[in-house]
Amino acid sequence: MLNTSYMKKIYTLVLSLLVVGTSLAQKSPDEFLGYKAGERFTPHHRVVDYFEHLASTLPNVELVYYGESVEHRPLFVAIVSSPENMQNLEQIRTDNLKRTGLLEGSPSTKVAINWMQYNVHGNEAVATEAAMMTFWEVANPNNSESKSWLQNQVLIIDPCANPDGKDRYTVWYNQKGNKILQPDPQSTEHSEPWPGGRPNHYLMDLNRDWAWQTQAETEQRIKLYHEWMPHLFVDYHEQGINDPFYFAPAAKPIHEQVSPFQHEFQDIYGKNTAAKFDANNWQYFTKERFDLLYPSYGDTYPMYNGAIGMTIEKGGSGRAGLGMLNALGDTVTLEERIIHQHTAGISAVEVTSKNAARLTEEFAKYFKDNSTNPKAKYKSFVIKGDGNHDRLKALLTLLDKNKITYGFAGNRSGLRGLDYNTGKSTSFSTTEEDIIVNAYQVKSVLTQVLFEPEAILEDSITYDITSWALPFAYGLQAYALETKLDAAKAYQKPVFEKNVVNGAPLAYIAPWNATVHAKFLAALLQEGIRARVTEFAFEINGESYPAGTLLLMRNGNQYVHDYDKKVVDLANKFEITLATSNSSYVDKGKDFGSSDVKVVKAPKVAVVSGAGTSSLNFGEIWYFFEQELNYPISILEADMLGRFDLNKYDVLILPSGNYLNGGSFTKVMDWVKAGGKAIAIEGSVGMFADKEGFSLSRFDTEEEKKAQQKTDTEFQKSARIEPYQDRERMGISTTAAGAIFEVKMDQTHPLSFGVGKNYYTLKNNGRRYAYLTNGVNAGIIPSLENYRFGFIGNKLKPQMNQSMVYGMENQGRGQIVYMVDNPMFRSFWESGKLIMANAIFFVGQ
User: Fold this and answer.
1) Strands 550-553 and 634-637: what pairing?
2) Distance between CA atoms of 105 and 98, rounded to whole angstroms?
3) Which domains are seen in the chain, by residue range?
4) Can you tell me the distance from the alpha carbon of 581 to that of 587, in angstroms, rounded to the nearest whole number?
């Protein structure tokens, strides 16, 4: 019989040896990777390997894989805290959700949650290297100081939020970098080619996607974010090489919803970090450039969710590589950049630990105060649902992603609020289909920010756009009320009644007023189903249908196998209700056999990419086709257009930029005149302006052109006598930063089908074009009274009077579609996507 006491001693000895062995097995990043920090850039798979090594050798480290990138690289966070906290991690997490109200109950723990995100911009690649160093210092069991940091803190580190962009940069740099450090800015390793590593796979800026969650990486990360709702969120970046280092406090404008404690804690962090930098004689700046306004950043979105959001920016970025000379002739090395970001990270860990109790208390207070007493002028928002069910459904999907609650309005009258469409207060009533969103909820601040017609600016110099109101973005009639208006009843998602095949109708009738309808059309065309579009409104069987309605006729589809089943199955997939008719004879309008009911050809589409094009605008187009329309598109490099056979394509999309010249311009125009359709967006519109043979002009008359030149000259002279420090403020007088204008759409033109009588454009550029003299002005700003909200410079605003926004002109047998404003800005301006779909599928049919 075994001696129990003896066995216990053996077990204790073995366990002790295992613990000692484990502690010896843990390795620093340098030891594990086989090179010192700053000697090279680490590819993502090796970063994953290192964190898995720590998780396998340290009992208080846990990895959470929250998804994968578009290119199938793993997305994960690493979590570390004291052994006691790690054993109680789920309780800590749920306690924190109780502080917000997302879960019911009272918290029993007071552990602060500090989330630090790195490398959301792929070529700001110092961040991931710093992430490994910082996590190791905190997790290292031999670091006695870190044990105190972790007693009251859970540290969550996302070492690489954009692994596709990061590896795009890393692979390129490791190919081009010299063996011997070459800081010469002209050396090839300091000239990253288009599109650069900054964006994700679809060339979208993930740091501007937080609220909209259009990208897979963002959507997956926000789900995890809502499971934790951290108290501190630090977002690590790099800026130009000639700038030293930036950390909080942030610059103005700071949104009025930022709380006093959020202001205070930014200052606490700033002073703590400044002391560390001062001790090392490192240069830095605060309270400049990086503001807290636009709600979709990695600092503002957490701010509007109760956290202390902060941006960190080290000078260097993709150009710097392993080392490069700055304007002063100093070599900025990767090693230096890593140490600086690491120091800023340790500062965040320190201040979180020192202020853990207050962070948790103020966090709870933030949600209690705001959900019971919203700060902003507008407390409730009514969104009209009549006639726009699919647009409304898209908006509600976004609200769900952001945990914003809403309900049905019910039948009410005698209400009064700001009409988004007119910008004026008016009386209105609601129906059973309308939605109420009020600010008396957990996500009070985020709700107010996303729905506010216009942010209040304490300073007009901003880092990003100044207006983003969701009713404009989704093309929905809405009202903002200054009082609380509760929902009449809780929201229940309407049950979609599936279409059922009854016999063999002569025609299926489908709506066209939302992005989902474009997805449906694209799917039909992919199945080889012939669709038609009605160019005139009509009435049939007692129902009215607008221009742009889709018809799926049996005639022309008689050879499609399982035609009815395919149509109905696709309609059910996209939850689109179909009407049917057994006659082509209409009560009013054009009969279905009219030549004004056009066959929609399945177009072969190409888009130009590469040097000279806006990578962001190209990415928006690419994403729209692949992830939303699910429709094939060819990608043509701009510098190779001369070699391509454009006759293979029906549509050529020209992203913003300036890249057609000489032979390529001639080739594209020959293709257009032979029957092609070019769609020019933002900057690329200018490639056709003020040229012989085109009706596109920046000015109405020669007199206006001369007058503008005179004004520009006078402005330049006045700028010279203005105080030097006001030069930036003078410059913004000719810019637009997300100004919203009502565009009068020609509803008879295919470019306007389904858009409705009110379309609102988000103007982010100062380009102005006169009405086309030999074309169709499909969307115009007829008057300055069409301005609604958002910043536009006082010298630029008058120029918007009587200007063209969307237009088309014929060139030979083809067309050029002009889009002065980007209708798909950052993929969140939902209402503009229908204009793009119209241009692709309907214009020129």
Assistant:
1) unpaired
2) 6
3) 7-370 (3.40.630.10), 374-488 (no CATH), 507-600 (no CATH), 605-841 (3.40.50.880)
4) 12
Predicted pLDDT of residue 530: 98
- Distance in angstroms (rounded) separating the CA atoms of residues 394 and 297: 22
Checking phi first, is residue 480 left (phi over 0); if not, alpha (psi -120 to 50) or beta?
beta
| Residue closest to 200 by CA, chosen among 218, 222, 174 | 218
- Kindly report the number of other CB atoms within 10 A of residue 457's CB atom: 18
Cα distances (angstroms) measured from residue 299 to each of 26, 380, 400, 660: 33, 25, 21, 38
Write phi, then psi, for 33 (nearest 5 degrees): -80, -25
Q: How far apart are CA 88 and CA 227, in angstroms?
A: 16
| Structure tokens belonging to residue 69 | 């990138």
Helix (H) or strand (E) holding 74: strand 74-80
* Residue 456 pLDDT: 81
Q: What is the DSSP string of 618-648?
A: HHHHHHIIIIII----EEEEGGGGGGS-GGG
Beta strands in 185-287 (DSSP E): 232-239, 245-246, 251-254
How many helices (H) and strands (E) the chain has is answered by 24, 35
Euclidean distance between CA atoms 603 and 797, whole angstroms = 38
Q: Which two tokens stand for residue 374?
A: 């919203």
DSSP string covering 96-148: HHHHHTSS-S------EEEEEEE-SSTT-THHHHHHHHHHHHHH-TT-HHHHH
Give the pLDDT confidence of 41-69 residue by residue, as tens digits. Answer: 999 999 999 999 999 999 999 999 999 99
Handedness of CA 619, 624, 630, 634 (dihedral sign): negative
Q: How far is CA 51 from CA 132, 228, 245, in A?
A: 8, 20, 27
Closest to 799 in 3D by CA, of 727, 694, 711? 711
| Alpha-carbon span 143 to 574, nearest angstrom | 56
526 three-class SS: helix
Residue 445: phi, psi to the nearest 5? -65, -45
pLDDT value at position 7?
A: 37
Query: Are 250 and 290 within 8 A, CB to CB?
Result: yes
Q: Confirm whether pTM is higher than 0.85.
A: yes
List C-alpha distances in Å: 782 to 699, 746, 789, 793: 15, 12, 16, 19
Cα angle 810, 815, 817 (rounded to 5 degrees) comes to: 110
Between vectors from CA 290 to CA 284 and to CA 296, what angle results, nearest 5°?
140
**Residue 773: its pLDDT value, please?**
94
CA proximity to 416, closest of 382, 388, 439? 382
Q: Are 609 and 657 in contact (CB under 8 A)?
A: no
Low-confidence ranges of the chain (pLDDT < 50): 1-23, 725, 729
Kind plus residue range of the DSSP H or E element containing 440: none
Q: What is the DSSP string of 344-363?
A: HHHHHHHHHHHTHHHHHHHH
Query: Is 150 within 8 Å of 59 (Cβ atoms)?
Result: no
What pLDDT sits at residue 300?
A: 97
CA 43 to chain centre: 26
Look at residue 644 and give its three-state secondary structure. coil
The SS3 of residue 608 is strand
Q: Does residue 705 contact residue 768 with C-beta atoms inside 8 Å?
A: no
CA distance 121 to 621: 20
H helices within 414-509, ranges in order? 444-451, 470-473
Distance CA 681, CA 654 (A): 6
d(CA 298, CA 207): 6
Q: At what angle do helices 260-279 and 334-354 cross, to 10 degrees?
A: 130
Tokens (6 digits) for 367: 């949600």
Say if CB 58 and CB 141 are below 8 A apart: yes
CA 148 to chain CA centroid, Å, is 38
Under DSSP, is residue 760 helix (H, G, I), strand (E, B) or coil? strand
Q: Which of 756, 769, 35, 88 is nearest to 390 (CA)?
A: 756
